[in-house]
Structures are given as structure tokens and as C-alpha cells.
């Protein structure tokens, strides 16, 4: 049964044709010499988490062990790095196949090695501490029960952790590549101080000869957060933050931006999974109606390139289109768009209305209150400089992408960019009564 709407869960399906991008990074990780930090950079909503999941799946197939850490869940911890270390410890204790492959160390022993951190703290001022393997289970239990949030020492603990991971990974000949890949997701959603604390902790404790760290970040957001954490007042001065980030991440990969065809294909795929309504009683006829909806909509978004390069936003648009198609909107008319004989006028209005509803809330509210305002929206599409300040109030948060003769530079992923210029100009003279039925559909 078709779904009514999509959720925002990450997917392991390659919707934007990034298979080669992912394989290239996986190959770098597989053949790299740790310690190494890698960042996958993309704007919010552009599919970083999905890309990380696909990369994790690729590495899992290569028998490289991976740990997943959602940074924002632990941003309120006094020491986020401790939460990450605990995640690594839990991973190995639960990974029976890795422990069975090594035949050298039990999960309790591994926890004990991490538990030795606390004992090292106690004796750090008096000399070097070297725990015996026979003592580790007891140390590990004490660490679990009493010392989760204690501050960790540095060089001695890093050495112990590296040895612990080395033992837990075991012999590569047993079927495992001898490196641990740690995925850090949603670091850019953490409070600035928490993001800096975690990065500092990673730099100090996980700069290990058997660890690769892969971050998913919005570089803009991370640099702003670091500026704030460093108390740099000038938001435009990101040099220090960038230098800091590059010290941790030697390779920074930018998510490939999809072209108009990729975006159209993705929307079409999403719509094909949803219940798009239809008045036919026969299931095959209903499927044919839904298929026709998809064909008509895809023609429009291909021709006018009106979608952001943002999977999350396209998913939201697909959900809105499905709601409208299941509603009472009338798409029976055979009227076509001038100079576009294969594009139906009603479907063009459907797409324009859905985009305004999904991405431009204040403009949608104004049109609902006064459908005749569409005349001013068309003028805005022709040239935003010709609109008075008073008329522009519902458009104050909208960034134009066209000035009447030239395409303006805009962020390809942001949904506040007005991308309906070409479509509205093609629709030519629009009346309030044309758009009103699409505004009323729920």
C-alpha cells in the first residue's frame, strides 16, 4: 500500500546518483594510513546523513569495522568525548563476530582496558601506570559504575585506547581490515561550545594509528560555531575556524550538487511511492492516473528547474503535492502553457502553488487572503526591483534569483530562493481565479 507521506529518515538509496562519490571516499578510507580525518560537507537537508549511511554500508561490505555517533544527542554532556568513547566501547562489546574473530580478548577485558583510564588518572602525578590484563575486568567494572564523567588524561590514555582497539580489531587475516572508522553525524547541529569540546577531545584522544574519523558537516555552520566558541565577533572572518577544522580534517569532500534532471528524477521517484488519490475504482486505472500525475509534474520541473538541490526540501514538496492531488483540485483541463505545448496549464499551477505553500509561507498566506495578489507575484518574478516596499512585505524573506534579464547568484540548496521566475513568466497573465482553487486544496 502506498504511503501518504514520506518521513525524514536517512536512506541508503542513492537518490542523487552519488555512487561514484561514495565509492571514491570508501577507497580513500580503505587505503589510507591513520590517523586521518575526513569531512563530507553539505548544506542542511542535502543528504549528508544518507551519504554517511551509504558510505558505512560500503565499508561494512569491505569488512571494515565502523562506529556511528550522533553528536547532537550528547551536546549537553560535560565531556562529549567521553560519550563517544563509551559508544566505541559498547560497539566492541556487542560485536560478537569481531570478538570471535580475534580470539585474543573478551568484551569484559576490552571494557577493562578502557576502565584503566580512571586508574591512570589516579596515579598520573606519581608515575606511569601499566595495568595487567588480569586486573582489567575489575578495573572496567569500577569505571562503568563510578567514573563515566571523570576527566581523562592524555598521552597514556591515548596509548591504552590505541592498544585496546588494536586488540579488539584483531588480525586482518581473520577477515577484518585493521582500522576502525568512526562516523560523526550532526556535529553542525551542536551548540558551539559542545562542538568545540568534541573536536578538542577527538584531536587529543582519537588521533590514533588505527582510527579514521569521518564527519558530516555543514562547513558554514561549523565555522560559525567555532567563531562563536573562540569569541571571534566578526562572522565574516572564518580563517581561524577554517584552519582549525583543516587541522582535524585533512580531506574535505563537498557533496555533489544534482542537476535539474537529477532533481526531477528524485521528485518523480518520491511521488511514485505515495498515494496520489484518483477517482478510479479499478486499482489499475488508479495506478494509471497516479502515473499520469507523475509524468505531468516531471515535465514541469524539468523544463523550469524550480527545485532546490536539497533532498529534504524536495521530499517536503512531494508530500505537499500528494496532499493536493488527493484533494479536490481539478486537473481535467487540456489547456497548455503558451510556447510549451506538452505542459498542461493546470499542472503548472499545481506545481507553482505547491512550491509557494512549501517554501514561502508568508507569500502563501497573502495569496490565501487575496488570490489577486498573484499579479504582484508575477511582477516580482519579472523583476523584483519593480515592486514597492509595501508590496514586497510578504516577500521579505524570499531571495530572488532573477532580476529581469540575468540569473542572480544564489545558494542552490536554500528553499527561500524564489525559483518560480521562468514558470510564472511562461504562465503569462495569471488571475486570482486561476490560482484560487489550488490555494484552497487541503
TrEMBL record:
Coiled coil: none annotated. InterPro entries: KAP_P-loop, NTPase_KAP_P-loop, P-loop_NTPase. Residues 20-324 form the KAP NTPase domain. This is KAP P-loop domain protein. It comes from Methylotenera versatilis (strain 301).
Amino acid at each position: 500500500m502506498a504511503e501518504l507521506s514520506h518521513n525524514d529518515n536517512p536512506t541508503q538509496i542513492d537518490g542523487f546518483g552519488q555512487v561514484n562519490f561514495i565509492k571514491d571516499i570508501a577507497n580513500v578510507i580503505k587505503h589510507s594510513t591513520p590517523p586521518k580525518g575526513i569531512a563530507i560537507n553539505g548544506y542542511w537537508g542535502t543528504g549528508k546523513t544518507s551519504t554517511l549511511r551509504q558510505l558505512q554500508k560500503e565499508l561494512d561490505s569491505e569488512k571494515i569495522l565502523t562506529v556511528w555517533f550522533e553528536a547532537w544527542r550528547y551536546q549537553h554532556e560535560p565531556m562529549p568525548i567521553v560519550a563517544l568513547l563509551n559508544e566505541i566501547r559498547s560497539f566492541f562489546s556487542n560485536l560478537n563476530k569481531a570478538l570471535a574473530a580475534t580470539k585474543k580478548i573478551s568484551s569484559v577485558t576490552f571494557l577493562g582496558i578502557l576502565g584503566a583510564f580512571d586508574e591512570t588518572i589516579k596515579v598520573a602525578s606519581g608515575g606511569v601506570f601499566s595495568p595487567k590484563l588480569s586486573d582489567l575486568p575489575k578495573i572496567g567494572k569500577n569505571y562503568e559504575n563510578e567514573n563515566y564523567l571523570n576527566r581523562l588524561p592524555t598521552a597514556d590514555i591515548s596509548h591504552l585506547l590505541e592498544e585496546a582497539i588494536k586488540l579488539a580489531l584483531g588480525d586482518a587475516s581473520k577477515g577484518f581490515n585493521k582500522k576502525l572508522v568512526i562516523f560523526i553525524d550532526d556535529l553542525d547541529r551542536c551548540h558551539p561550545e559542545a562542538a568545540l569540546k568534541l573536536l578538542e577531545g577527538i584531536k587529543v584522544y582519537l588521533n590514533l594509528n588505527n582510527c579514521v574519523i569521518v564527519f558530516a558537516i555543514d562547513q558554514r555552520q561549523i565555522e560559525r560555531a567555532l567563531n562563536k566558541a573562540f569569541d571571534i565577533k566578526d562572522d565574516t572572518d572564518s580563517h581561524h575556524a577554517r584552519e582549525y577544522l583543516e587541522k582535524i580534517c585533512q580531506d574535505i569532500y563537498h557533496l555533489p550538487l544534482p542537476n535539474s534532471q537529477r532533481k526531477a528524477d528524485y521528485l518523480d521517484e518520491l511521488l511514485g511511492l505515495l498515494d496520489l488519490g484518483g477517482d478510479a475504482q479499478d486499482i489499475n486505472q488508479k495506478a494509471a492516473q497516479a502515473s499520469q500525475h507523475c509524468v505531468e509534474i516531471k515535465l514541469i520541473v524539468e523544463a523550469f528547474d524550480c527545485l532546490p538541490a536539497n533532498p529534504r526540501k524536495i521530499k517536503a514538496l512531494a508530500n505537499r503535492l500528494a496532499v493536493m492531488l488527493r484533494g479536490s483540485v481539478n486537473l481535467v483541463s487540456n489547456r497548455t502553457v503558451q510556447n510549451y505545448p506538452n505542459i498542461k496549464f493546470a499542472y503548472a499551477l499545481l506545481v507553482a502553488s505547491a512550491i509557494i505553500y512549501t517554501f514561502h509561507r508568508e507569500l502563501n498566506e497573502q495569496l490565501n487572503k487575496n488570490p489577486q495578489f498573484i499579479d504582484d507575484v508575477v511582477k516580482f518574478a519579472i523583476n523584483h526591483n519593480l515592486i514597492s516596499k509595501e508590496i514586497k512585505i510578504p516577500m521579505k524573506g524570499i531571495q530572488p534569483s532573477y532580476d529581469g534579464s540575468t540569473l542572480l547568484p544564489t545558494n542552490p540548496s536554500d528553499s527561500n530562493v524564489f525559483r518560480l521566475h521562468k514558470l510564472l513568466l511562461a504562465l503569462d497573465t495569471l488571475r486570482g481565479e486561476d490560482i484560487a482553487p489550488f490555494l484552497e486544496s487541503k
